[in-house]
Design a protein that fits this description.
Blueprint (H helix, E strand, L loop, with lengths): L2 H23 L7 H23 L10 H15 L1 H4 L2 H28 L6 H22 L12 H17 L4 H22 L15
Helix pairs in contact: 1-2, 1-3, 1-5, 2-3, 2-6, 5-6, 5-7, 5-8, 6-7, 7-8
Length: 213
């Protein structure tokens, strides 16, 4: 298996996890199949769509519709078998895969923006984070839920850290781009996995309005 094939399958796994986790997150609203597909697909491809529109390039899924088909199929599967996905092991697997997808998409987007020379050095970081969490933000707004940015969940912060580090590698150690990207993906995923496993959150002292001794 080549590196490109491995990256493609990893991206597909992340897309599946994004779509499924989106449907499961709004299951308590007793939504219908159409709403599930819309919310799940938006979550899966929304961040990358926002990124490409800002960059003024062809939206990634327009030239490769497999992202849309995989998203739709995942949404339907989550809708039909949502009780299965509520099983502790299966649900945890989706969460961890979702975390890996966020790490992969964030770092890949950072590299894409850097290669285009778009508003360096800050835009690669911003659009890397947008790619990873943008779809989830749109989903939460449409579903009337508290967004990731308004919660204490450790989701966006690990992506931000990884994208910043990868940008520094691209700027000062470009010869180590491949290994640097792998390291940043693993770092983001490790922080997110730790947050899932130990139920970690942004500390109270880092929140606005918190009491400081």
């Amino acid at each position: 298996m080549t590196l490109d094939e491995l990256s493609f399958y990893a991206a597909m796994a992340g897309t599946v996890a994004f779509a499924i986790s989106a449907v499961l997150s709004v299951a308590e609203r007793r939504i219908d199949l159409f709403a599930a597909v819309v919310l799940g697909t938006i979550t899966a491809v929304g961040g990358g769509t926002i990124r490409d529109i800002i960059l003024g390039v062809s939206v990634f899924w327009v030239t490769d519709l497999i992202y849309i088909w995989v998203s739709i199929a995942s949404c339907v599967a989550a809708f039909v078998a949502y009780r299965l996905f509520q099983h502790r092991f299966v649900g945890a697997l989706v969460l961890y895969t979702d975390g890996f997808g966020a790490a992969l998409f964030g770092v890949q987007a950072t590299g894409k923006v850097w290669d285009l020379g778009f508003a360096l050095p800050i835009a690669p970081v911003i659009l890397g984070v947008v790619t990873a969490i943008g779809g989830g933000l749109i989903r939460d707004v449409l579903a009337g839920r508290q967004t990731l940015l308004m919660s204490r969940e450790l989701y966006a912060v690990p992506v931000l850290i990884g994208c910043i580090l990868f940008t520094l590698i691209l700027a000062y150690a470009p010869d180590y781009r491949f290994y640097g990207s792998i390291a940043c993906i693993l770092l983001i995923f490790a922080i997110r996995a730790a947050a899932i496993h130990w139920n970690l959150h942004v500390p109270e002292w880092a929140m606005m309005g918190s009491r400081r001794q």
